[in-house]
């Protein structure tokens, strides 16, 4: 059976599984954005592996590739561009999405934006971009959105690019401040959004607002977009792996229904069950992820009512663990003081989602395993808050770091008292 | 090898293994009490020696054990271990060993206790496990000498404890007398286990009563606060980031040139501590916070002092260091919580702080302080010196490189704050096993 496709109004087809080039494989076997068991990824991206993976995906019908100038320390576009060019497939056979990632103030002026776009074209070895996105419009609040896209005329310029056919579709990705989202939809008549990228999965469907007051539930976002007939591109279907990694809370609810299904498959099937979804992006690092996910999508079996109910129960169970909603996107990195923020959260979540809480000694051992360098642990956070403005999940990182450190300290004291 | 020799070797091996294990946190309760650096064990051995001979050197001393082992391996033909190079004490030997003993006494009496203890076996053993090379070198040397047929050269020529024990055991019931008519033919070396005329074991020879009095260090005004005004951030430049992922480089800070060292909690008086501590290294090996390290300064060589680069003194710790200390140099204070022992206080350096050098809103030290002794007032950290216990958490987390902008200065005499609350004051017998309650961490 082949890949499931969705069709756009112009008749072009988009594979329901898309590739997100945010966690490219590295030579040492990790991914470019993070820590791996061999240490902090200092080695470069494994281009040969990426070439193979991209060809593999194209051969099996995956045709949507999403990247950004900011990803993988700025390497992502160039690497993906090389891999696509070497794949042997024609430009029309795949869809490339990239973004206007002007996060830093020095990138706000229109000239900087123009340069970013031209660079993107160069790196991607193409003369047009299929899908161009305003990157994470709610990050840093509406004021930042206004500075990034409105006051400098970047949005007008993007619309013009579409007229010139240098970009084929214009959209935006949304995290953070709801005002930015509402503004964009209110101006749909003016800018005619071709698609919109939102974070959607069975936890965020109804509980995004519960996790963080600043968020909007994915159900609300999806229904607003559907009402306006704007196709939806899904990011974080697995919440950065939180929904794919073993967690007792999730497994207890989902495994009885289908013991053979992986947790990742459940999450993909949830998102894929909605008809207005154009594609579901997954940042697949390992070839095995790719193989497994392609199998899930070839074809994708939509969820039944009973399964939706089970997924809702699983979402509630996960929320009860109070784990940190970090998706390891690495937007906060590099922390200027050297902390490994995503790994610290991964450690915290691993302990919180365990069936029974591990002993103090075991917990500290896991900390040492997941954040091996002492100088990158939570206690070295100075509370400057430079990270927090970048977090798409609006996590108050300095506060979480203080809490985690306090908790770790209490464990250390508990150990020292023995 | 006869049964007696085998038994001694077995005891020696067990003792050495037990003491070594206690360095890895195993069986510290027993080992640190039994190990001969412990005052009571030492006195017991002292009393037994006139009767039983130099049992210490053979059964309790790690250096003695190594020499026995090497002798057994390299000189198996001698049925008895060769215990000394010349049975009747030679003149050269006499001069050397008594000079060493005199030197030891002189050093200890003149405030160089840490150097004096360097000559004793448990101190050497501890240095092998903490500072590594200084200790391992001595062990290597005695092994080589033993292998070269010099027998227990260290015990008989150098070790001050060995000398002391040899005097005590001169009239020992169990040892063999060498009569005046001895021609030094060494025939006795080959027969059944009788040649141990003068095996001595090294224990701390100098009585601990020297410990108070004039040996106290001065208020260590000798060292000037010589911190260089270099503030380099371990972090990447504050330039706005444009891409995601990656790691800023990190590096360990340097050791600040403290006006006074920070001693483990319970060391109370620096002068007394300096004499009492034999630098056996057990506290360093068992530190729960990972902050004790062996001093490399001349006068405190091998003795524990705080190094906050890799950890800090935990407020909830049950004095692991005091618990294992065999000599009582670090007191275990049963009735009081760790946070009530003030080891020193933090000193903030404006010229190094990144608030001044980079204008960063850093609150690392005040966030980390377990007793809330650092308050940020108008952006500046203010240390409440009455509340500060000198645990070093602030120094540990300070992001400034190469020297932290906040560091701990140790007290000459540690301050113990007895709880005001009468409910807490009466000593409870099993306080050692019970959790010390609220830790006063930030809430």
Please tell me about this protein's structure.
The complex is a heterodimer of chains A (418) and B (443). Chain A is 43% helix and 12% strand. Chain A has 418 residues and is of the alpha/beta class. Chain A folds into 2 domains: 5-318, Alpha-Beta Barrel (TIM Barrel), CATH 3.20.20.100; 341-416, no CATH class. Chain B is mainly alpha-helical. Residues 79-86, 190-239 and 425-443 of chain B have low confidence and may be disordered. At the A-B interface, helix 2 and helix 17 of A face helix 16 and helix 17 of B.
Our count of helices of chain B gives 17
Biggest interface between chains: A-B, 51 and 45 residues
Task: Work out the helicity level of chain B.
Answer: 25-40%
Strand-pairing-aware structural class of chain A: alpha/beta
**Major sheet of chain B, described briefly?**
2 strands, antiparallel
- SSE pattern of chain A, N- to C-terminal: EEEEEHEHHEHEHHEHHEHHEHHEHHHHH
Largest sheet, strands/sense/barrel of chain A: 8 strands, parallel, barrel
Lateral arrangement of strands in the main beta sheet of chain A: 3-6-7-8-9-10-11-12
Estimate the global geometry of chain B from the Cα principal axes.
Answer: elongated
Average predicted confidence as pLDDT of chain B: 75
CATH topology of the largest domain in chain A: TIM Barrel
Number of strands of chain B: 8
